[in-house]
Amino acid sequence: MSDPRSTAIDPDDVVAADAAAREFVARHSDDDSRTSPTGDEIGRALVVVVDDRAAHGEDQSLLGPLVGELLGEAGFHVDATVAVSGDEVEIRNALNTAVIGGVDLVVSVGGVGVGARDVTPEATEALIDRRLRGIEEAVRSSGLAAGATDGGLSRGLAGISGQTLVVNIANSRAAVRDGMATVAPLAKHVIEAISEF
């Protein structure tokens, strides 16, 4: 039987983590977030939208373009936005294709809740070499603080697969905006650290 203290999250820790994440974002928001120190784009990115209707062309109100726009504002070149259904194999294949394609960042949107078809974390976990729990918790904490309940309750993962940063975020507009505000400056530093190897 596991120790209940190991799974309980102290509300003060959530507040402290949120404050630290917001301070980090504020501290780096004055940076020229569009370019690296050499004047080039930060890197290449790919967006994977996990949504059954979008995958079948039935829903045109995709959050993918919003993520792409936010990534562009942060200095990333977005190679593509793809939509896949809530199927673990399809999600894994889309993420793996991005990693093999050599993008620096892949952001998946959706499939991180508790529904039967919310399997993005399971598909992602199989690909990740090193988890980045700090990013996961920063996204959840800032989501709760911003009132994006699905962002705060997300089971989304973040980690490194090969030379690619992979991040899962929830699929509401509020969760996307808040999640990308948290992820973008952190991604910059992770990508710089990965490229040093």
What descriptors fit this protein?
single chain; 197 residues; alpha/beta; 8 helices; 46% helix; globular
What features would you describe in this structure?
There is one protein chain. This protein is an alpha/beta fold. It has 8 helices and 6 strands. It has a 6-stranded mixed sheet with strand order 2-1-3-6-5-4, with helices on both faces. β5 (158-161) and β6 (164-169) form a beta hairpin. α1 packs across α8. The longest helix has 23 residues, at 173-195. 42% of the residues are buried.
- Contiguous runs where pLDDT drops below 50 for at least 5 residues: 1-7, 27-39
Helix content: 40-55%
How many helices in DSSP terms?
8
Q: Summarize the helix and strand pattern as letters.
A: HEHHEHEHEHHEEH
Strand content: 15-25%
Sheet having the most strands: 6 strands, mixed
The side-by-side strand order for the widest beta sheet comes to: 2-1-3-6-5-4
Question: What is the topology?
Answer:
Layout: H1 11-28, E1 43-50, H2 52-55, H3 64-73, E2 76-84, H4 88-100, E3 105-109, H5 120-125, E4 130-131, H6 133-145, H7 149-152, E5 158-161, E6 164-169, H8 173-195
Parallel strand pairs: 1-2, 1-3, 3-6
Antiparallel strand pairs: 4-5, 5-6
What's the short version?
The protein is α/β, with parallel strands linked by helices and 197 residues long. It has eight helices and six strands, in the order αβααβαβαβααββα.
